[in-house]
UniProtKB/TrEMBL annotation:
This is Collagen alpha-3(VI) chain. Keywords: Collagen, Signal. Residues 31-199 form the VWFA domain. InterPro entries: ECM_Assembly_Org (IPR050525), VWF_A (IPR002035), vWFA_dom_sf (IPR036465). Residues 1-21 form the signal peptide. Gene3D superfamilies: von Willebrand factor, type A domain (3.40.50.410). SUPFAM superfamilies: vWA-like.
Length: 254
């Protein structure tokens, strides 16, 4: 009897961490809206790179689900293109990379106003809310942008901003977030700075940052890289996936 109890306890303890991990992921609820600048200064290629980064570096690292993290995306220029807040990751993966590039002016205020409408109409009661603004330039009507950002903050939305490239105004982003620690910047469109919303990150395979080395190219790849931890031989019959040291944060998960 005692030994059976012991065995059962051990089994239960073995399951516990897994159950806890699953439970905590499932109960992280967050409503997030990401506003992406599609104005002329950014250019089509940078816009596409930015959307891809938004997907791989933010959205795909969150536990997306109808009862977990829901995300909406707004591409803004003279007009807006909107993906409503959803917990459907497949839908986001299909739609985000294909958002329309308008290439006209930077109507940041329209995006912030639209985001507020979306939070008010589709936001979940009692669920924390965040807005992330990604812009490479200056708002066409900064005072209106500040006002709509204030409306969001008044509605308990935490407002974050990342200046992308070199032409954004740090001062303007600080006015929009009203919190200097919620502003950051990045010089490239293909790599974003992390935003810590307190959401536990999920592990993802990134096809963009992991390098697949096939047997045919193994010898050159190994000799040109000092960072490869795995030992490879030219007779290896399987291809090996290697995360190079140059990919920054794929080993960091909370
Ligand atoms: C999620 O989106 C995909 C692609 O639009 C769709 O095929 C699928 O039915 C959606 N899933 C749910 C549960 O709505
Ligand atoms: C935000 O709330 C403050 C304090 O209640 C109020 O004075 C201000 O007018 C509000 N601003 C906006 C833009 O709603
Ligand atoms: C500013 O942002 C940081 C990071 O989210 C947060 O911890 C802090 O409480 C914020 N400060 C104010 C005054 O809202
Ligand atoms: C900005 O991003 C850098 C690089 O990811 C990070 O080290 C830094 O802590 C961030 N700053 C703020 C204020 O979040």
């Amino acid at each position: 009897m005692t030994s059976l109890w012991l065995v059962m306890s051990i089994i239960a303890l073995g399951w516990l961490p897994g159950l806890l991990a699953q439970t905590s992921l499932n109960f992280v609820k967050y409503d997030v809206i990401i506003c992406v600048d599609s104005s002329v200064t950014i250019g089509l290629d940078n816009f596409r790179a930015l959307l891809k980064s938004v997907l791989t570096e933010y959205i795909e690292r969150w536990p997306i689900g109808e009862d977990a993290v829901k995300v909406g995306v707004i591409a803004f220029s003279t007009t807006l293109e909107v993906i409503s807040m959803t917990g459907n990751l497949t839908l986001l993966e299909q739609k985000v990379p294909l958002m329309y590039y308008e290439g006209r002016s930077t109507n940041t205020h329209l995006a912030l106003d639209q985001a507020n409408t979306m939070f008010m109409s589709n936001g979940r009661t009692g669920v924390p809310k965040a807005l992330i603004l990604l812009t490479d330039g200056r708002a066409r009507l900064p005072d209106k942008a500040f006002e709509y950002a204030q409306v969001l903050r008044n509605n308990s939305v935490s407002v974050w901003a990342i200046g992308v490239g070199t032409k954004y105004s740090l001062w303007e982003l600080q006015q929009i977030t009203a919190n200097i620690t919620r502003v950051n910047s990045t010089s490239t469109f293909s790599q974003l700075t992390p935003i810590d919303l307190g959401i536990p990150l999920v592990q993802v395979e990134s096809s963009t940052t992991s390098t697949v080395i096939s047997p045919a190219t193994t010898s050159t790849a190994v000799s040109s890289s000092t960072d490869i931890a795995a030992s490879l031989t030219s007779t290896s019959s399987v291809s090996t996936t290697i995360q190079p040291n140059t990919s920054p944060s794929f080993s960091i998960f909370r």
